[in-house]
Specification:
The structure holds two protein chains of two kinds.
Chain A (H helix, E strand, L loop, with lengths): L5 E2 L3 E2 L4 H11 L5 E5 L5 E2 L1 H16 L3 E5 L3 H9 L7 E3 L2
Parallel strand pairs in A: 1-3, 2-4, 3-5, 5-6
Helix pairs in contact in A: 1-2
Chain B lengths: L2 E4 L4 E5 L3 H17 L4 H20 L7 E7 L3 E8 L23 H8 L2 E5 L5 E8 L10 H30 L4 H16 L3 E7 L5 E8 L8 E3 L6 H8 L3 E3 L19 E9 L2 E10 L8 H47 L10 E9 L6 E7 L5 E8 L3 H17 L7 H19 L3 E8 L5 E7 L4 E4 L4 E4 L2 E2 L13 E4 L5 E5 L16 H13 L4 H19 L5 E8 L12 E5 L1
Parallel strand pairs in B: 13-24, 17-20
Antiparallel strand pairs in B: 1-2, 2-3, 3-4, 4-6, 5-6, 7-8, 7-12, 8-9, 10-11, 11-12, 13-23, 14-15, 15-16, 16-17, 17-21, 18-19, 18-22, 22-23
Classes of the chains: A alpha/beta, B alpha+beta.
Chain lengths: 93, 588
């Protein structure tokens, strides 16, 4: 089990999301728990949210759960606007 | 990566249709919004909105043309438009989130609508525009850069005023029915001071869409080429028309040696702007200066382009209107001519116990110059007339009317066709000569017992006389009416006792210019007439058969020509039966 948080990039958007997803997907393969550190993420858009949802689905299929750590207020607002706080487990340390 | 910026009522950003370029464009836009004094929260909201919108523009682009973001800031509001080149989609009134929370897509429009006050999506022929606006949290203080702001507003208002004033002026000129070239010349003179250019050249695409024709110029050389082939893309102007986008040129441009722009000076710069209406390129406006480089103000270019597009549409509609009016006039003229021609035809051809007659007149299109008549004279004799007025339309119809009137007023000469022909020529010559027209005529006088034929011709196809063994051509020929003043005509007498069938016809029936294998040849016509005589076919059946053959021949040779003929059959060759329609008339 890999419990070290995975750090999300400064911008998780359409131009960065695909490559980041490919890399993280390898990291969480066969994991039942993973957390994404969003503290450094200044900007996220719907493409970035899509990647987080995809990773969450992968973990759920493996019997696990995805945690989002320390999102900024702007990112939190977006997650709430899109009602994804009902999907993700958000942790503020 | 291409990223060009231009100040234009705010900021305009053109970016390549890929995600990296779109991201750079959004960052550039947010920098500008930050400079406008928007709060961090406002900038974050706009960043998200623009990221969603520009990503859509890139992902759904149908070509590699640059995409555009335009930002306008006012005291109270930010307005942003994004131009895309996609097939477009229906903009929802209220975008919803996906029903399934786990769905990875489908949130972009919801985000855009929730973070803006207003959003609308305009579909265009080649591009679509997403308009977004959001009220500013803190109104922009007017004192900040007040002078610059006022200057900009004054300039914009002046530009708008100039644009509108010119548009109204041009519209007024168009209403005065000015010819398009005069209208365009006036318009270019109006535009000249606004454009900042040294010269303006307007070319319109010809109706056959093969060339750019010079319509008007302002301060350009008068010896510019009249036409440019659209297919020749080495020319700057044709390249702009074909590429449907502005084509810039300057001292570094390599011109084709025959490019008209090279006649404007040793060193010219400017651009050719395609004029479009209804998604169709209709012309090109070229403007420039006589120097190595030109950097016109964006505002000036905008004004000129707007006016150019308007004028193009105006000229196009004028041309369409003129063509429509012209077409209606021609149609009306042909209708009048057809009415006249129909009024000249006898209701029936004369019949008697000794001579049966049947005829047909086919006109191609609305009206032709063919004329046919059959007149029963007081003593039981007959005069058959077939004529062909050179030309078509109203002039030909008017001469046919005059010809008929003269013919019927000189029937006292019917027994002597040569005298009648000479009289007709003398009476019609002055008018025909003035109009440079002529009429070919065949007169056939047949005695009451149908035993004697007397014929005279004025440049007309020979009259055919047939029996079961032979077909004779009668050439009592003279020049067509209207060619030689006061000339005597010949006439020829023939005993009909040995003949059964006679035929008068126009050259549309057997065109001697056509090769044997294609045309309804003279030989074939003779052969058919002889067989008709052998089989003793009456005038009406012969007429119907010949007409059928003529149609088949035209279908086979893909030709259409007037065809008029009269067939006469003498007693003994007939199978008597009542047939009311002795003269038929058809339009093809």
């Amino acid at each position: 089990m890999n419990t070290n948080p995975i750090t999300a990039p400064n911008e998780l958007c359409s131009s960065t999301a695909r490559l980041w997803k490919e890399r993280v997907s390898k990291d969480i393969a066969n994991q039942t728990e993973a957390s994404i550190d969003l503290s450094k993420t200044r900007f996220i858009d719907s493409s970035g949210l899509g990647v987080l949802l995809s990773l969450n689905k992968t973990l759920q299929a493996q019997g696990g759960v995805l945690k989002l750590l320390n999102p900024s207020s702007a990112v939190t607002q977006l997650i709430e606007l899109t009602r994804l706080h009902r999907v993700f487990e958000i942790v503020h340390a | 990566m291409k990223l060009s910026c231009q100040r234009f009522e705010g900021l305009r950003i053109d970016y390549d249709a890929n995600l990296d370029s779109a991201r750079d464009a959004v960052i550039k836009a947010i920098e500008w919004l930050n400079d406008q004094g928007l709060t961090d929260e406002e900038c974050q909201a706009w960043e998200l909105v623009l990221a969603e919108a520009s990503t859509n523009c890139v992902l759904h682009a149908t070509n590699a043309d640059p995409l555009r973001i335009e930002l306008v800031g006012t005291e109270n509001k930010i307005e942003i438009s994004l131009t895309d080149h996609s097939v477009g989609f229906e903009w929802p009134d209220h975008a919803e989130l996906p029903e399934d929370d786990d769905n990875e897509n489908g949130r972009g429009l919801f985000i855009i609508q929730n973070l803006t006050d207003h959003s609308s999506y305009l579909h265009g022929a080649r591009e679509n525009v997403l308009n977004l606006s959001r009220t500013r949290t803190n109104p922009k203080p007017l004192a900040e850069d007040l002078r610059e702001t006022l200057d900009l507003m004054t300039s914009e208002v002046a530009a708008c005023y100039e644009t509108l004033a010119n548009i109204f002026r041009i519209s007024a000129e168009a209403a005065k029915d000015l010819p398009p070239d005069e209208l365009a010349a006036k318009w270019l003179e109006e535009l000249y001071p606004l454009s900042g250019a040294d010269f303006l050249i307007l070319r319109m695409i010809t109706p056959d869409a093969t060339q750019l024709a010079l319509l008007a110029t302002a301060h350009a050389n008068s010896n510019l080429s009249e036409f440019i082939e659209l297919s020749d893309t080495t020319m700057v102007e044709s390249r702009a028309a074909n590429g449907r986008q502005d084509c810039w040129f300057d001292a570094n441009t390599t011109f084709s040696s025959s490019d008209p722009l090279t006649y404007l000076g040793e060193s010219v710069s400017g651009f050719a702007h395609p004029l479009e209406t209804g998604g169709e390129v209709i012309g090109v406006l070229t403007m420039g200066v006589r120097s190595a480089h030109w950097e016109p103000k964006a505002r000036d270019i905008h004004v000129v382009r707007s006016l150019a597009d308007f004028l193009g549409t105006l000229l196009y509609s004028l041309r369409s209107r003129d063509e429509s009016i012209h077409s209606r006039l021609i149609q009306r003229e042909l209708q009048i001519a057809a009415d006249i021609q129909r009024s000249l035809l006898p209701a029936e051809l004369p019949q008697s116990s000794t001579l049966q007659s049947a005829g047909h007149l086919t006109t191609v299109g609305e009206v032709g110059g063919d004329f046919v008549d059959g007149i029963a004279l007081a003593d039981g004799s007959r005069l058959f007339v077939i004529a062909d007025v050179m030309g078509k339309g109203v002039p030909a119809a008017l001469f046919a009317t005059a010809f008929r009137s003269l013919l019927h007023s000189h029937l006292n000469l019917a027994t002597q066709p040569r005298d009648l022909m000479r009289k007709l020529n003398a009476a019609l010559f002055p008018e025909l000569d003035r109009a440079e027209m002529f009429i070919t005529v065949q007169l056939a006088y047949i005695t009451a017992d149908a035993l004697t034929l007397r014929t005279s011709s004025a440049g007309h196809s020979p009259l055919l006389v047939a029996n079961s063994k032979t077909v004779i051509e009668l050439h009592a020929n003279g020049p067509p009416l209207g060619v030689i003043k006061d000339i005597p005509y010949e006439q020829q007498d023939l005993s009909l006792s040995d003949f059964t069938h006679l035929m008068l016809h126009t050259d549309g029936l057997s065109d001697p210019s056509l090769p044997k294998e294609y045309g309804f040849s003279k030989e074939r016509l003779h052969s058919w007439l002889r067989v008709t005589s052998v089989e003793g076919i009456d005038a009406w059946d012969a007429r119907d058969t010949l007409l059928h053959m003529h149609h088949l021949n035209q279908d086979a040779t893909h030709t259409r020509d007037d065809a008029t003929f009269v067939i006469l059959t003498r007693e003994g060759a007939l199978r008597h039966k009542p047939l009311p329609h002795t003269l038929t008339h058809a339009h093809r």
